[in-house]
Amino acid sequence: MLLVGGSLFTSTPATALFRRRALRCSASAPLQEAGLVRRAAEVADLSAGHTSPHPNFGCVIARGVDVVGEGFLYAQGTKCAELQAVEMAGALARGATAYLNMEPGDCFSDHTAVSSLVQAGISRVVVGLRHPFQHLRGKAIQSLRNEGVQVDVLGEDLQSKIFEDALKSCLIVNAPLLYRAAFHVPFSVLKYAMTLDGKIATRSGHASWISSKVSRGRVFELRGRSDAIVVGGNTVRRDDPRLTARHGGGHVPVRIVMSQTLDLPDEANLWNVYEAYTIVATQRGARKDLQKKLAKKGVEVVEFDILSPRDVMQYCYDRGYLSVLWECGGSLAAPAISSGVIHKVYAFVAPKIIGGVNAPSPVGELGMVEMSQALDLIDVSYEQVGPDMLISGFLQPIPDLSPVIPSSDELSAIDPTVCPFDTKIISFYKTWDLYGAFSNYSPHPIQMPDENGKYQTWSSVEHYYQAQKFAGVDDRLAKDAYEEIKTAKSPEEASRKGRRLQRQHPDMVRADWESAKIDVMYRALKCKFSTYPDLSAMLVSTAGSVLVEASPHDLFWGGGREGEGLNYLGRLLMQLRTEILDRNSKAAVVS
């Protein structure tokens, strides 16, 4: 559910999307084009809820007013929107115009989006937004122009007011990415349900149910669009929530509990990590006995010197989260708003009155004494959801990054002393990072032999690595797990399935896995970097720098939150880099 073009809409099944092969516009050309850009934003939004949130890319190919192809990025590492659209359009793509909600750039070294449009014969591309990350900004646009494709960017080449609504649609559909790029925190949404008299529970704390079943279904959709859900200790003690998306599969967000004192029950629904992962954020030194109990249940406990909403959001930013949903009570909502980490509000207002002087309200004390201090929502939207009214709006404007920011190549042309690789420590994590192509989730398929020597194609290194946990095990469930991971639609799904199956069925994991996993990973990395010369060149360009996989939670493959991790992925890449440099040096001597 997202505000696009001034109204709220929910995603439709992809099958229904691909049956709609034409879109008719009867207005003038600028209005037609504005409508097609808005359509690209709508198509981009169709991936929400399938997997962990990521940049939302949509592509619409049209000949005049007729749409002949559409596609959206399902997840990082899957077939790009542009390739899907040209495959649908077929021969009709030649000479047609492609409309993109945002400049392509899911991964720095992946050129599939541009090559798909060029090879299909697309003559013109209309782009809603340049990519918000500076190391990707303008690169795809310049590549298309270098290939002779006309590229028009909203707000630059197309400046008519007619395109303002289309530009807004493109901004909103990628609001999480834009906030991350501009403010270096995830996009945070505060959600609550209250009565007409502004209460979220009775004076006894009972709150089930203020809103209707229809509204609760909408909340599940909001959860499915989020990387994480934040609640406070009061919510855990009072409601014992599950905080699952319940949308019939797909992405399940991480649950985060903020508690300074760790005054939490030994048993709670959130401590069951088979449905979803749980993180407890607390103050350093709080209740070490409970920390140990939670760790045994598989709950991750993260200590902060001073627990605050901003520090927790910084931690979420470091984990690569784009979108966070706050479902907390008023005592946590107030400091979250005061610290500036809440960007949007969803308020479900039920036609009920319960009264009560001591009944809690959605937001606690903010220290305001005059109405002039009140925080105004902007871009406010109203929608009736069952018997309830949903009011939503932004507390902070959506960052408009449309002014041209020079790319790293353009900076080098301006100042040759500027070098994007001039650093001693190079970190990578998400595929949208500057060195994100080093990630196991990057969209680079590999071919690896199975136990019989037969080569199989794997969609990513992560697919291959997770499946190898069950390779060669003479057990039907293990074989099923192997195939389930191999056919996962995205690296995120492959990782989620592999980790879940390993936790639930440790007996299915191959006996030598702990001693073999490093070799498995290294062979996959060698295949990846030998298959793609541009990746090998990027790796060689980091010579002299320490490579760190910047996962704050994986203390084996990653570097950890405070450098306490073993960083084995970074180590293997540096080992591979040395091998490539030695090989290149020997080849140079021979020549």
From TrEMBL:
For region Disordered, the annotated ranges are 485-504
What are the entry keywords? Glycosidase, Hydrolase, Multifunctional enzyme, NADP, Oxidoreductase
Write out the biased-composition intervals (Basic and acidic residues).
485-496
Name the residues that span the membrane. none
Q: Which residues form a coiled coil?
A: none
Which part of the chain is the CMP/dCMP-type deaminase domain?
A: 31-152
Q: What does the record give as the reaction this protein catalyses?
A: 2,5-diamino-6-hydroxy-4-(5-phosphoribosylamino)-pyrimidine + H2O = 2,5,6-triamino-4-hydroxypyrimidine + D-ribose 5-phosphate; 5-amino-6-(5-phospho-D-ribosylamino)uracil + H2O = 5,6-diaminouracil + D-ribose 5-phosphate
Q: Name one Pfam family in it.
A: NADAR
Does the keyword Oxidoreductase feature in the UniProt annotation? Answer: yes
**What is its pathway?**
Cofactor biosynthesis; riboflavin biosynthesis
**GO biological process assignments:** carbohydrate derivative metabolic process; riboflavin biosynthetic process
Q: Which GO terms describe its molecular function?
A: 5-amino-6-(5-phosphoribosylamino)uracil reductase activity; diaminohydroxyphosphoribosylaminopyrimidine deaminase activity; hydrolase activity, hydrolyzing N-glycosyl compounds; NADP binding
Q: NCBIfam families from the xrefs? A: eubact_ribD, ribD_Cterm, ribofla_fusion
PANTHER family found in the cross-reference section: 2,5-DIAMINO-6-RIBOSYLAMINO-4(3H)-PYRIMIDINONE 5'-PHOSPHATE REDUCTASE, DIHYDROFOLATE REDUCTASE FAMILY PROTEIN (AFU_ORTHOLOGUE AFUA_8G06820)
What name is this protein filed under? CMP/dCMP-type deaminase domain-containing protein
